[in-house]
Amino acid sequence: MSDYLMQTYARQPVAFVRGEGAWLFDSNGDKYLDALAGVAVNGLGHGHPRLAHALCEQAAKLIHTSNIYRILEQEELAARLCQLSGLARAFFCNSGAEANEAAIKIARLHGHNKGIDSPAIVVMEKSFHGRTMATLSATGNRKVQAGFEPLVSGFVRVPFGDVAAVEALSAHHKNIVAILVEPYQGEGGVQIPQAGYLGELRRICDEQDWLLMLDEVQTGIGRTGTWFAFQHGNLMPDVMTLAKGLGSGVPIGACLARGVAAETFTPGKHGSTFGGGPLACTAALTTLSVMESDDLLNNAAKLGAFIRSDLADRLHDLSGIVEIRGQGLMIGIELDRTCTDLVKLALADKLLINVTNDNVVRLLPPLVMTQADAELLTEKLARLIRTFLG
Ligand SMILES: *Cc1c(COP(=O)(O)O)cnc(C)c1O
After folding, report:
1. Residue 164: how many CA atoms within 13 Å on its side-chain side?
2. Four-point Cα dihedral 106, 110, 111, 115, nearest 10
3. What is the three-class DSSP state of 97?
4. How far is the CA of 168 from the centre of ligand 1 (A)?
5. CA 95 / ligand 1 centre spacing (Å)
6. Statement: the pTM of the whole predicted model exceeds 0.90
7. Mind listing the pLDDT tens digit for each residue in 74-89?
8. Ligand 1 test: best mutation among 129, 192, 228, most atoms within 8 Å of CB?
9. What is the pLDDT of residues 32-72, one digit of tens each?
10. Quick check: is 244 catalytic?
11. How far apart are CA 321 and CA 143, in angstroms?
12. How far is CA 191 from the centre of its chain?
């Protein structure tokens, strides 16, 4: 381990040097099945030839100019994302936290434009929105916030999945301007709300003249079997944020909006030096193009259903399993106990997984995973969980 790095991560003692599809190879030549995809980033898996080719070509032409000028790749990507989502305009940045910062700034500015001097945003318990000061303040996890007080004010918190709690707020808080919510919570333990939850939030937002802002940083770009998770329901957000899977590992984030939210920023109100550069936009355009031509949304839906049902079959007799849940290739296996040690046990078995919320095994496989890889995954993981639960 390096003495020259700040100690922000408790890293696993392995370094990968190359990859192919859902497989990673370490410096000893050992191969690992990747069921985490760089935490929902590498949708196209590793070493994708079309992505590598597009990036090489773009790097030879232009990597960066500036948002002082038009950027054709950025204009094309904005149009493409708006066409896929039904939203109207995009702002590009470099990460999920930055995308949420843009959404929070839009909500506040929109509030001020309406004459609300101290606008507030409704956020959820167990949510995760990033680690900048505003986004960690919006996050519903004390571990993320502790030690960084004073927090950014202007957030009102309610339990995730609780429509009545949001409704109750509207009576007392006249300064609320928006709701910021993940369609399915990722870091919070792969939490899936009851069907119709987002639609109910949409209804409240319409009644109260609030913006519905969806954090799709983890759920977006095909992860759940549709381009965006909100598309499993019958509603439209006013604002949506994207990052993780958008650039297949080349850093890019986006904040999309429609209606008044799309017109809120005017020149000078927001910006980013690197945001939406030619190389990152080429990565995103190629990601979307490969996902479409290789039918990866369907693959995510189909493989996800297989993985959940096959794990349920293999583990049905174990009382330590609380629930197996998810949508597409965003899957959580909740145990009745802390299971962070499973990450190490899996690594020793050459399988890359993650544990979130202490007791939820989280799978976020690349969307290019094959049926054969998925079968290997469920077999290995079921064996590991069975041994772990003893
Ligand atoms: C990962 C994540 C973020 C933060 O993204 P960064 O790129 O790490 O800043 C925000 N929201 C959600 C839902 C996430 O999963």
Report:
1. 0
2. 150
3. helix
4. 28
5. 7
6. yes
7. 999 999 999 999 999 9
8. 129
9. 999 999 999 999 999 999 999 999 999 999 999 999 999 99
10. yes
11. 26
12. 13
193-215: b or e for each residue (b if 16 or more CB lie within 10 Å)? beeebbebbbebbeebebbbbbb
Q: Find the catalytic residue in 34, 215, 238, 373.
A: 215
* Arithmetic mean of pLDDT over the chain: 97
Q: Please name the fold of domain 51-293.
A: Aspartate Aminotransferase; domain 2 (3.40.640)
Whole-number pLDDT of residue 258: 98
Give the Å distances, CA to CA, from 171 to 56, 165, 179, 273: 55, 11, 15, 41
The answer to whether residue 1 scores a pLDDT higher than 90 is no
With CA atoms as reference, report the closest residue to 368 among 16, 50, 27.
50
- Structure tokens of 50? 């079309």
- Token pair 């597009």 is at which residue? 54
All structural domains of the chain with their residue ranges: 16-47+295-389, 51-293
Closest atom of ligand 1 to CA, residue 186: 15
pLDDT band at 172 (very low <50, low <70, confident <90, very high): confident
Among protein residues, the one with the nearest Cα to ligand 1's atom 11 is: 129
Task: Name the CATH superfamily, with its identifier, for domain 16-47+295-389.
Answer: Aspartate Aminotransferase, domain 1 (3.90.1150.10)
pLDDT in tens, 257-306: 999 999 999 999 999 999 999 999 999 999 999 999 999 999 999 999 99
Closest CA to 42 of 332, 348, 251: 251
User: Measuring CA to CA, which residue among 115, 141, 136, 73 is closest to residue 285?
Assistant: 73
CA 213 to ligand 1 centroid distance, Å = 14
Contact between 254 and 356 (Cβ < 8 Å): no
Sign of CA dihedral 261, 265, 269, 274: positive
Number of helices (H), then strands (E), in the chain = 13, 15
- In this prediction, residues 16-44 reach a mean pLDDT of 97
Residue 197: the pLDDT is 98
**215 is a catalytic site residue:** yes
Which of these is catalytic: 91, 92, 128, 230? 128
Q: Tell whether the model's pLDDT for residue 170 goes beyond 90.
A: no
Q: What is the pLDDT of residue 139?
A: 98
